[in-house]
Amino acid sequence: MDERVLETQQWLNRTYKGVPGYIPAEENGRTSGYVFNSLITALQIELGITSPVPSFGPTTKNKFKPLSKQAGEGSPKNIYYILQGSFWCKGYSPGGFTGQFLDGTERAVKEFQKDAGLSPTGVVDAKLMAVIMNTDGFRLSSQGRASVRFVQQQLNANYGHHFDYIPTDGIYERKTNKALIYALQVEIGLSAVANGNFGPTTSDQCPTLSPGNAPVKTTKVLQYALACNGEEYDTLTYDGVYNARVATAVGLFQSFMTLKNTGVADMPTIKQLLTSNGDTNRKAVACDASTIIDREKAYTLVENGYKIIGRYLTGTVGGVRSKAMTTEELEIIFDNGLRVFPIYQDGGYYAEYFVKGKGTTDANKAIQAAKKLGFPKGTAIYFAVDFDAYDYQVDSLILPYMAEVRSVFDADGSYEVGIYGARNTCIKCQNDPSVRSKYSFVSNMSTGFSGNLGFPMPTNWSFGQFYELTIGGSGDYAIGIDKNDYSGLDKGVSYTETPERKALLKELDKIVSCIPILEANPSLFTANFVFNKRTEVYRSPTVDVDVITTTNFIIPGETDVVVEVDRGKIGVSMETLFGEKAYGRLSANQKSIYSQKIDDLAISIGNGVIGMSTTVKPGQVIMTVSAYKREIPVEGGNTVKLGVTVEYTFKVNPVDPGLSPVEVEEILENVLIAAAVMTVGAVSYMAVAAIVSGGILVAGTIYSTIAFFAYLLGKDDDNNGEV
User: Fold this and answer.
1) How many structural domains are present in the chain?
2) Is 594 in contact with 570 (CB distance < 8 Å)?
3) pLDDT tens digits along 2-46
4) Neighbour-count burial for 647-670, b at 16+ CB within 10 Å, e otherwise
5) Same domain, 270 and 317
């Protein structure tokens, strides 16, 4: 308790009790916004305002006359008591509580003016009185930085005629942020229309600053903005010179915000320094949406350059339309090469949502939904705080809620804690030891949120929402999204571990183990393998190998040979499968090896088909071996299908003007026979690599190509064949 504050409160109540409009002060000796409400209504009564309100508004400013030191001893006046009481509540000593404006009060005024960055005149005008009578800090806070305080003082001194004086406590907040925009607007010639909002006119007039092309005052504003956005960007001197230090700081900020690191402060960079959403025309590869993604919408996302999308684990839009992900949707997302990051939001639009116990309930719901969809261990789930949470609400409501989430997540051990919200919310959740959110999904699009204005980006930001739009025109292809910046910290998920997927991976492993060149590349077929796409297996100047997987049972239209597999056995002979000529060229040892490979493949298929095809194109012979499994049982009673096609592209060119048609046909026949052997034979990736690196095959030379295939045809399993 502060005795002087208590004395002020008691005097106010004695003097104004019962006067209409006066707000009585609680006599507790503690400074707060409530005691300033009492002081302001008392001042308004002294100014003759008949309907006092607890706000130092335009009427109060117009009626207030400047106060200065009294001549001689001076007689006590209520307005001086109010000034002195305000200083005591502000933390400044006016020399007593006498109702007189003498030396002690003048010293307090000058001290306060210096702290605010103003010339110490000792005169209290309406603008100064307004900030004396509020809770803003004008001394360096323990949470503030000296460089930010200097910036605040400079803004008050040089641009304060455009706005109410801002606090100078060294803490970057919304008032400082708006003051910086005012300063920029003044320096680029918009003084007459300056409003502290970075709108279209400011964007159009915003300069590009670089070494040798940067006005001093505008560069100072840039230096101020860099300092406010973090110590790592602070140039330490604010002289308006665009030197190497400034360029480096600009580049660091650009990299942090995933802008192109040029060291040049262009409009997108300056706007990103001064607003939460920056230049909304910039491109994005990440987005979020409340719409379920079907194949048409997935096509739209890919066509527009998006690679990762945030989607919801549960919930509806307006209680009508579901926004919850489904396994079918996730298959479509992954089939189109997209990744996803999960969001949990079944409310969170208002402060009253965040009550005790809600975090525990929501955490369990999120974990249950994520597991049902098959999200792998380690996936980050973002819990939404979708309203403008003031600082005290973050402390009293959001942090306890997120601490409950953290407790449940720690006990379960499956997933990481993420937070969606304004910058201040995200920063506090990152730093609070009971929350320790791993990643932040920042609602930068909400530019007016108090938790965004004047707060830097959290260092653990993964996604930053900055603009809402519809892409894909109209109709089924249209989708409304929020564009997101993407830092790369959280790469999202490219697969889920559903029972269906586990069954597919298990069967894929069986089939892969029967095909040598796939068996030699196990790193391609790990838990994050993406089905329904083409995957490169091997590349060389002479042979390319790809694998194509499908979760549908489709026999290629151009397949030359289709062999039914029934209960692990094929219904044709090896001679039929290979072709008479190719089979006749095999040694007994090779026949045995290749027969065993085919038998193993048939066993892995169980019931389905094996398909083989040959396609001759200019400069290419393409051979494929396909294995299709009709039904794969899934835990829970469902079934899935799987097809695996290995495509071998042999790069040959048997066209030579000196060769006769018969010779060309003979060469092609040898190539086809060799290719047929290779596609189902025991020639592994390592063997092919050794042949190529050993110089046996020379790209573009037909005779070395023939030699290569002859080598393959004569090669037995012990590498003792003749060439």
Assistant:
1) 4
2) no
3) 999 999 999 999 999 999 999 999 999 999 999 999 999 999 999
4) bbbbbbebeeeeeeeeeeeebeeb
5) no
